[in-house]
Write a structure and sequence with these properties.
alpha+beta; Alpha-Beta Plaits; 4-stranded antiparallel sheet; 4 strands; 34% strand
């Protein structure tokens, strides 16, 4: 079953360009290091609130990637999250895709 990882966070508006650069580097690094990422979408709620949604082929793939990033195996993750505050993360099962 597909899994959607949802990260909600805040970042200072003046960091937007750098945030986007680091996030793009992170997506590329994760795709190279951890198979199973289908798509990654970033949306902005307001000037400082963001929601990053990553669709994975399975819970196992999503959790392996998260563990690898947290252990330092994907250094781009630490760099990307340096600009984020108030981070919340959820893993959700996708029950319908059309």
């Amino acid at each position: 079953m597909a899994v959607l990882r949802i990260d909600r966070f805040t970042a200072k508006p003046e960091h937007t360009d750098e945030l986007l650069r680091r996030r793009n580097a992170l997506v590329g690094a994760v795709r190279s290091a951890a198979p199973g990422l289908r798509e990654a979408r970033l949306v902005r709620v307001d000037d400082q609130t963001w929601i990053d949604m990553w669709l994975w082929d399975s819970s196992a793939s999503a959790k392996r990637a998260a563990e690898r990033a947290q252990s330092g195996g994907i250094p781009e993750a630490a760099a990307a999250f340096e600009l984020a505050t108030d981070v919340t993360t959820e893993f959700t099962d996708v029950v319908d895709e059309r």
